[in-house]
Amino acid sequence: MIKKLQKRSWAEPYKMKMVELLKQTTRGQRSRAIKAAGYNTFLLKSEDVYIDLLTDSGTNAMSDRQWSALMLGDEAYAGSNSYYKLEKAVQKFYGYKYLVPTHQGRGAENILSRILIRKGDVVPGNMYFTTTRLHQELAGGTFEDIIIDEAHDPTNEFPFKGNVDLEKLTRLIKKHGAKKIPYVSIATNVNMAGGQPISMKNLKELRKFTKQHGIRIIHDMTRVAENAYFIQQREKGYEKKSVKDIVKEICSLTDGATMSAKKDALVNIGGFMATNEWDVFEEARNLVVIYEGLHTYGGLAGRDMEAIAVGIEESLNDRHQQARIGQVEYLGQQLESYGIPIVKPIGGHGVFVDAKAFLPHLTQDEFPAQTLAAELYIESGVRTMERGMVSAGRKPNGENYYPKLELVRFTIPRRVYTQAHMDVVAESAAAVFARRNKIRGLKVVYEPKYLRFFQARFERK
Amino acid sequence: MKRTLAEPFKIKMVEPLRVTTESHRQQALQTAGYNPFLLNSDDVFIDLLTDSGTGAMSERQWAGMMQGDESYAGARSWKHLETVVKQLTGMDYILPTHQGRAAERILYGILGGKGKVFLSNTHFDTTRANIEFTGASAFDLMPDQALDLELELPFKGNIDLKKLEEAITHHRPENVAAVIMTVTNNSAGGQPVSMENIRAVRTICNNHNLMLVLDGCRIAENSYFIKQREAGYSDKTYEAIAREMLGLCDAFVMSAKKDGMVNMGGLLCLRDDKLGRECTNLLIISEGFTTYGGLSGRDMEAMAIGLTEVFDPDYLHYRIRSTAYLGEHLRKKGIPVVWPIGGHAVYVDAKKLYNQIPVHQYPGQMLVCDLYTKGGIRCVEVGSVMFGKYDENKKLIPAAHELVRLAIPRRVYTQSHIDYTIETFDDILELRHQPRGLRIVYEPPMLRHFTARFERL
Fold first, then answer.
1. DSSP letters along A410-438, please?
2. How many CB pairs under 8 A join A and B?
């Protein structure tokens, strides 16, 4: 029978120029490897992993243009030419005035938190992120979640689940006073909600509101281009605008930013802090010397600043984002076709599987998401990440946070895997789904003080 | 017959340099507030600002870069680096950091705090800043002889053992956070430390139950001097000597941008379990996960290879001799230099050279500016700009010396570049009687030498 043409597939707007060989392992090898890793996918050796969906952070494939820029890196300790290129790119594409490079995103979060937060301050934000919240707490602040309730419901298909609930912010201001709120922290896209975008309309309303109260907006802009692509696809009035223009508009509604360039900007290492305020910049320049490096390299090799500058421009290409988000969507649809419960709508940088619905026979104390990630690895060598109770960690008083969402994140590195790799991933998840009733939970045997998800060790119950 | 020592490598990739005019440089320097740290690197001809992260990597390191495994967790490149460093240090906890100061910040952040003291042969500028930032104090315990810049001693970087004992008694052992041995001793002119000295420090630390940290960013260069100058080491390999130094210490911090032969990277290595775990937690918060610590996979790969290349006898001989070449020729010209010549840099005594310029007008900074204007050469002041303090009346408490450091990047400049640098000092000699220097018009509260701005008087 002749197949009728139904829809045109997207294809990657690039071809492969360099490849990295992968190793296949047996099920027996993988069972031993995950046990040795304490059932924590973070502790696996990368050579035991077949398809690595642990994170999209720093795992990107760079373009030939980035590799050539890498060769042009100016490694002078002070006043490196590569710094000025990066500064120019940040000013041109994001519109922020002042730039302080850092070795990666958490370096920028550390410096910014120390400058802006005083002891007893409250920092509202559209959902927590692990390292961001920790730096806010270490600087003496308390994080308060002001994301809309829809974000906590994995089945709700609201198109902008990264939006802020202004009612929640109003209540916080009433309770603490605007003076206790140094800034509102806005992430684009919201990672912990499943890679969900904030709408331009919501951001504009927030901007108007915070202006009245004299509160800054600080932009966690790690995946801003992906957020811009969703605005282009879903928000009225933006259909005809380019990702590039939308990104600039988003940034213009904020006062400063922290960036992990390891995501959107298509590099393996790097980050920065940007601000429009001279005073903040001056303080950051002094602090960065202590923590990161002189302000014209901030702990980055010259070549890495070159690669970021090129990567920023590449990330704003409409067709790049179409292929990027198209691939994530493809994996999500495949998983759904097998009946696997996923967070809807499908996010920008990964597919988030609802582990509570996947393993309904496990209680949250048995770590369903951690369990599922381990099982997926044993099944086929696919490495994913827990984003649930283990990641949420403990409150300053030592009690466990019990997050509403118990998710396993299938994060897609940019420009690395093919559609066939995605098919393999979906098929192995389906195989685990078929035997889900037999899966037992986990218990903790070691837990570090901070950010426990990185190093905690487990045993089968 | 004289035999020229040629480089034990040839050039595989080049980076073009821009030649500028004196008037262009005058303009650029003024824009940079007479602080070469604020110059654009494009305006610099020969960059002797630092040997940190400015080296040329080998083809093997570049090939390693291409094989960098960028996996977030458990990368092959990390395993490679860990294996090499474990073999070198014999320590159990190997923590990668984005550079040396991050390793220092993590370790000294845990060991330090108000009321604690650190004792060292000499703390480097970022080390001191990291320590003082925690509220602790840092004391340099150089022998008095070492303050004589021209006295020829084989191990002028040593710590004064008597002063160390006295300091421990004075501050009481329970307040001493750690003893830090910096090899080679950068702030003292890149001078080496002897094995005998480290061994004696170890004994003192044992007697008082103190921790001994090796700050070893130039550990291979120090090994070279031990082999050449200390009895009983002429038959040992440089690597074995380094391992012996490390064996005497409890912890190792390293900026790999020096003897690691890379452009970015650092290490923190520890023996103690409890401290190892605490440092690991801080590493994750501030640097990155334990298997990358804020470095790309390719940088770890390059470091693993660099740490083996640096112990090559031909390389080390070339490295130390080529630094000495610059120093010996300057001395022949009548330029007062710190003697003997150290491993990575030549230090000029600016107080003596520019003896008309009062110390509070920063003769070192003035020499740095003149070298740039005359030759497009960039170097750094190691004197009262870097280490000066103010008393309660805001009057400058000057540093002990006003030095200018000409640091030689590894495997970057040819002998012709160095000859050009030597010749530029002919112009400097004509300026030696100038009476006025500079004054500071802007300075930040910490590490002011990086961003301070000056005006000519």
1. EE--TTT--HHHHHHHHHHHHHHHHTGGG
2. 174
Q: In this structure, are B189 and B293 located in the same domain?
A: yes
Q: Do A103 and B99 touch (CB under 8 A)?
A: yes
DSSP state of A197: P
CB within 8 Å: A138 and B285: yes
Instruction: Specify whether B422 is located in the same domain as B361.
Output: yes
B147: CATH = 3.40.640.10
Same domain assignment for residues B113 and B164: yes
The rounded radius of gyration (Å) of the Cα atoms in chain B is 21
Distance CA B352, CA B304 (A): 42
**B419-451: per-residue pLDDT in tens?**
999 999 999 999 999 999 999 999 988 788 988
Q: Is the pTM of this model over 0.80?
A: yes
Verify whether residue A130 is a known catalytic residue: yes
ipTM for the predicted complex comes to 0.82
Instruction: Confirm or reject contact between A78 and chain B (CB < 8 A).
Output: yes
For residue B41, give its domain range.
22-51+312-456
- pLDDT tens for each residue of B336-358: 999 999 999 999 999 999 999 99
Give chain A's domain count. 2
Question: Least CB-CB distance to B284: which of A45, A48, A451?
Answer: A451
> Could you give the residue ranges of the DSSP H alpha helices within B90-194?
100-111, 125-133, 161-171
Domain encompassing residue A284: 64-315
Pull the structure tokens for residue A274: 């940007």
Query: Does one domain contain both B34 and B109?
Result: no
DSSP state of A79: S
DSSP class of residue A454 equals G
Assess whether A220 carries a catalytic annotation.
yes
Residue B197 lies inside a defined structural domain of this protein:
yes
